[in-house]
Write a structure and sequence with these properties.
- Helices cover 27% and strands 24% of the residues.
- It contains 14 helices and 26 strands.
- The strands form 6 sheets. Strands 1, 4, 5, 6, 7 and 16 form a 6-stranded mixed beta sheet that branches. A 4-stranded mixed beta sheet has the order 24-25-2-26, with helices on one face.
- The longest helix is centred in the middle third of the chain and has 13 residues.
- This is Enolpyruvate transferase domain-containing protein.
């Protein structure tokens, strides 16, 4: 941890063997078949983030068209297609979860150079890399490749770090654990919306277990989480207990920092419920490829427990090639859902399966809703098209597809059948109250969709009924700062009778900056505002 990490960014291909959902069959929330103080000190977070990016050479590294560059400001456009269904050839970005884990393990190597090719560059991965820079890394980017070099003889990282995480809970959780086991103090500056999420609450419990001290400060414009690290390895006998009801990311955060925590890391779920289990499996798979020995156990007494044995001091230098982002594929599935049976198909080129069980679970769910997928490994393509409609009511489970729930809502709304989604409540603890927001957005667009609430009146899912014709559209949708709501809403707009307008598309840069161009490639008509001379 005292070594200065020198990151040179270049791009390389990550192929992970299929990752099974190791624990979903044991979840206690089964699907019912009948289920209808740190002051800001005058700091300017935006300027600091820009300075960090300049230092490591990653200012706007993703491919950006003139339209994409305008997304940082206010922009109004409308989407319509004029025919029933779209089709064509498109490209999806690389996998963000694979990229995030590759960047972290690459920056935590013992020595040597790691390369990450076909990385998913977006605002969130850029902020993650800038945050790693604050722990002693220096970086440059060449196209879609990141080269990360660790020099164990270089100077140590600054004892006081300021990291901009914006709205990325993954960056805060992962770098928060790293800060807890590092020396010095780290100030994480987040958007004010982070204050309304349980991220800092659960992270505070964990950092206390690690011997660190966490404090928070918030005002009308920002939210600051400060962590004073312990700077040494922890008790080797300790078992770290984390919340897994809202997210699996704290388990991943601990496992990624395992070389700096203890010789044998042990993690236990605080409750029997674990959401996003496939993402923990992804972390274990990637660490296994780096020589770590990881384990998973379940007992009636302790519930779910994970372990990791990794050589102290960091990971070996490695090469990664990143697969296709499965969540981005879900937006194209929404476009296909708006089409007629057998009339149109969406073809995703240069497709590499992510290996995530969540991807397979998503494909199985949309198959129930009449959406077919065909993978051609020889051509590296994935075809998505409507092949039918459900003949009877359908129930889908959102436990292990957290990033796809909002897309499933839009696909279900086009299914011409009764569809109920359950076990989706954890999705409301993300950047926004996602389930509630996507339901309101689709209902305004003209779909017959409503929230599903449990006995405590808590939103746990959604329910759709068939429409008599296409949704009416004809509304204006604001960007509420959540790309996981904005993107499926844009995809759903292509089937509306009247154009749907979108204002201020800033959150697109969080994951899929080029989505508008991809919609146009499928035949959607996008009306842009005229530029003033």
């Amino acid at each position: 941890m005292s070594a200065r990490l020198r990151l040179r960014v270049v791009m390389i291909d990550m192929k992970i063997s299929p990752i099974s959902n190791e624990i979903s069959s044991h979840q206690d929330a089964a699907v019912s078949e009948n289920a209808v103080r740190v002051p800001a000190h005058g700091h300017n977070p935006a300027a600091a983030a820009h300075q960090q990016k300049e230092e490591i050479g990653i200012c706007e590294p993703w491919p950006r068209s003139a339209l994409s560059r305008s997304l940082a400001g206010s922009l109004m456009l409308s989407i319509h297609n004029g025919v029933r269904g779209l089709g064509g050839i498109v490209t999806a970005p690389a996998s963000k979860p694979h990229t995030q884990r590759a960047l972290v393990t690459g920056a935590l190597t013992r020595s040597g150079t790691s390369t990450v090719t076909n990385a998913a560059w977006s605002r969130e991965t850029t902020l993650l890399l800038a945050g790693l820079n604050q722990f002693g890394a220096t970086s440059t980017i060449d196209g879609d490749r990141a080269s990360i070099t660790v020099d164990p003889d270089a100077a140590s990282a600054s004892p006081v770090r300021e990291v901009d995480v914006a709205g990325s809970a993954f960056t805060l959780r992962v770098l928060g654990v790293l800060a807890a086991v590092s020396g010095g103090t780290t100030h994480f500056r987040a958007t004010r919306g982070m204050m309304n999420r349980p991220v800092a609450k659960h992270l505070g419990v964990l950092t206390h277990q690690l011997g660190a001290v966490l404090s928070t400060y918030g005002n009308d414009s920002e939210y600051v989480v400060s962590i004073k690290g312990r700077g040494r390895r922890c008790d080797q006998q300790a078992t770290h207990v984390v919340d897994t009801v809202d997210s699996s990311q704290l388990v991943t955060a601990l496992m990624l920092s395992a070389p700096f925590i203890s010789e044998e890391l042990r993690v236990r779920a605080a409750t029997r419920r674990v959401v996003g289990a496939p993402y923990i499996a992804l972390t274990r798979e990637m660490l296994g490829a780096l020589g770590a020995s990881t384990g998973l156990a379940h007992s009636a007494q302790h519930g779910w427990e994970w372990s990791a044995v990794i050589e102290p001091g960091g990971y070996p230098a490695s090469e990664y090639r990143i697969a296709t982002d499965f969540t981005s594929i879900t937006y194209f599935a929404v476009v296909a859902a708006a089409g007629e049976v057998g009339q149109h198909k969406v073809v995703i080129k240069n497709y590499t399966p992510s290996g995530l069980e969540s991807e397979d679970l998503f494909f199985r769910a949309i198959a129930k809703l009449g959406i077919g997928t065909t993978y051609d490994p020889a051509e590296s393509t994935l075809q998505i098209r409507r092949v039918g409609y459900p003949a009877e009511p359908v129930v889908i489970d959102g436990s292990d597809v957290p990033t796809a729930v909002t897309s499933l809502a839009a696909i279900a709304a086009y299914s011409r059948g009764a569809v109920t989604a359950v076990n989706c409540g954890h999705v409301n603890n993300h950047k926004t109250r996602r389930v509630e927001l996507i339901v309101r957005t689709l209902a305004r667009m003209g779909f017959d969709i409503r929230e599903v609430r449990d006995h405590r009146d808590v939103v746990t899912g959604f329910h759709t009924e068939p429409l008599d014709g296409p949704p009416r559209g004809g509304i204006v949708i604001d960007d509420d700062g959540d790309h996981r709501v904005l993107l499926p809403a844009m995809a759903a707009a292509v089937g509306a009778s009247n154009p749907v307008a979108f204002s201020d598309l800033h959150s697109l840069i969080d994951s899929f900056p080029e989505f508008i161009e991809q919609l146009e490639a499928l035949g959607a008509v996008v009306d842009r505002p005229k530029t003033q001379s």
